[in-house]
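Quick one:
INPUT:
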């Protein structure tokens, strides 16, 4: 099964730079518009509990002013549920969140937190928000997503990305295989499979080749690269690398 691979651009770190000085520049909504024009299929924003980057006002503006589907990353809390129900983004990706972490470290324990997650998933689905669970590429977590009734899982690619940076080829191959196996396991059971975290120009190809993956969510690298080449160029190049990898894999299959 090969399908179109969507690119969700995570604009959190545009807000990180803005917040370093306060004020309104650079504007995440402007970044979302540039990403859209450069080939993004969706915009992702994580409203963290500590509001370290994206703010409530950003979510309001993004939900109101952008044409692309908005994917709200959120912790499994009542506060975030109320915000999601208020703004009704196209999708909500439930992520684990710890105040001290630098970024989302590790996936959600969907299996261990079944009772906590169940009403949240139900309420979001009831509001026609597409629910995704950000999990490790582990069939046990995908089974849990299925039993929770989440239609989408996003596979955490952070460990794979780290192995590439470390130059550990054996580990890279092992982690990539886990992502492949999880993607096939999920797709066979009717889940829509996404992936993301730590993806760059250098490591996106092998993940983009996996035919069962429908969407990649990429943020930090693109915003960092935008400093050197501009956001338009960074998104276009990422889009091109994804398309190239997917089409080469399709021809080889
Ligand atoms: N997907 C999820 C669920 C995330 O939490 C993040 C980081 O906010 C990303 C994708 C994007 O990761 P990165 O910024 O490393 O590209």
């Amino acid at each position: 099964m090969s399908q179109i691979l969507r690119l969700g651009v995570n604009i959190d770190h545009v807000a990180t730079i803005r917040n370093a000085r306060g004020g309104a520049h650079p504007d995440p909504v402007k970044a979302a518009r540039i990403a859209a024009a450069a080939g993004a299929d969706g915009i992702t924003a994580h409203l963290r509990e500590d509001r370290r980057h994206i703010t409530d006002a950003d979510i309001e503006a993004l939900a109101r002013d952008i044409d692309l589907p908005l994917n709200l990353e959120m912790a499994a809390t009542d506060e975030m549920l109320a915000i999601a129900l208020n703004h009704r983004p196209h999708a909500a990706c439930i992520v684990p969140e710890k105040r001290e972490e630098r970024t989302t470290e590790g996936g959600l324990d969907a299996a261990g937190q079944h009772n906590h997650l169940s009403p949240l998933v139900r309420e979001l689905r009831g509001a026609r928000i597409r629910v995704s669970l950000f999990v490790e590429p582990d069939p046990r977590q995908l089974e849990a997503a299925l039993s929770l009734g989440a239609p989408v899982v996003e596979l955490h690619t952070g460990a794979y990305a780290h192995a590439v940076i470390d130059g550990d080829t054996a580990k890279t191959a092992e982690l990539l295989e886990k992502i492949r196996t999880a993607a096939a396991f999920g797709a066979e059971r009717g889940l829509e499979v996404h992936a993301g975290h730590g993806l760059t120009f250098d490591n996106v190809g092998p993940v983009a080749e996996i035919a069962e993956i429908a969407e990649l969510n990429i943020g930090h690298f693109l915003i960092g690269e935008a400093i050197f080449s501009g956001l338009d160029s960074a998104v276009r190049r990422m889009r091109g690398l994804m398309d190239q990898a997917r089409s080469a894999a399709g021809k080889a299959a």
